[in-house]
Amino acid sequence: MTFPVISRRRFLAVTASACFNPRTLCAQQPPAQDFLTRARAANANNKITATPLRRNITFLGGAGGNIAVLTAKEGKLLVDSGYASCQSQLIAALAAINADPIQVLINTHWHFDHTDGNDWMHSAGATIWAHENTRYRMSSTQNIVAYKAIIPPARTGALPTILFNSYRTLSDGTNTLKLTHYEPAHTDTDLSVHFTEANVLHCGDTFWNGFYPFIDYSSGGNINGMIQATEQNLATAAADTIIIPGHGPLGDKAQLTEFHDMLVTIRDNVAKLKKEGKSLDETIAAKPTAGFDEKWGKKPDAFIGYVYQGV
Ligand SMILES: [Zn+2]
Predict the structure, then answer these.
(1) Residue 198 has what DSSP assignment?
(2) For the chain, domain boundaries
């Protein structure tokens, strides 16, 4: 399909796929060099669920990060590509929608559970769009310290080739997509995709619906940026917007608001304890997430560490 650009600030075209769900990836710490291989293997048999949303948009869950699929006149547009090891299930799920090829793939950020399928989707014909920092991080070895994960550079075919660092509006005459970057939040590569006619907003990993988020400081993320990104998402969303989080079930503005309030309260609680001179262990012992753990995760220690690092 053709999506001519109808507005832009700064645009780069060049010639020339981790978030990490702590529930599935952190149970054991594998050797660093094997992290990606093991993550692929752990997700190879995932079941993909397909949920029709509004108009011509389908939500695919189970391939790693959550995926959105837009079916347009001349082909499909996808937001995020999941694990490479989920290729066969994704091909089946996409074929069940219709037989059209993938024309465009947009990455919400560089983490491999959102970009690992880039290579096969590119081979299938997709042009890949992303924040310019996504290409930068995918092009070089990355060390995700929180997971002791050394991630090697992606194959050339997996790299995004249409890059930007602010916002763009795309339209094919029927569908309008607003792509908006965030200041560093979950990483320094994040962007959102708003399908305006359908009123569906994909937030990438700036929103984790129902559990504490991972914040990747090694990739430029920080807690205050997460809060700002959530406020940006809230400003975009209306009461009836369908909100796709990077991880977790489909959400709405009320749940996004709850996520925001959780982040702010815990940030403030942790900041106060740190300002009093408490160590991380002492901060964890003071239970700054009390009242939230039942809903957002009964093992908050890692999340408290992410917050502590940024206040
Ligand atoms: Zn992520």
Answers:
(1) T
(2) 5-252
Q: How far is the CA of 114 from the centre of ligand 1 (A)?
A: 7
What topology does CATH give the domain 5-252?
Answer: Metallo-beta-lactamase; Chain A (3.60.15)
pTM, two decimal places: 0.90
Separation of CA 80 and ligand 1 centre (Å): 11
Query: How would DSSP label each residue in 25-65?
Result: HSSS---GGGHHHHHHHHHTTPPPEEEE-STTEEEEESSSS
Q: How far is the CA of 18 from the centre of ligand 1 (A)?
A: 5
Ligand 1 centre to CA of 261 (Å) is 21
Tell me, rounded to whole angstroms, the distance of Cα 256 from its chain centroid.
15
- State in Å: Cα 30 to ligand 1 middle: 19
Nearest to 82 by CA among 52, 58, 37, 48: 48
Centre of ligand 1 to C-alpha 65, Å, is: 8
d(CA 227, CA 205): 12
Digit-coded pLDDT (tens) for 197-243: 999 999 999 999 999 999 999 999 999 999 999 999 999 999 999 99
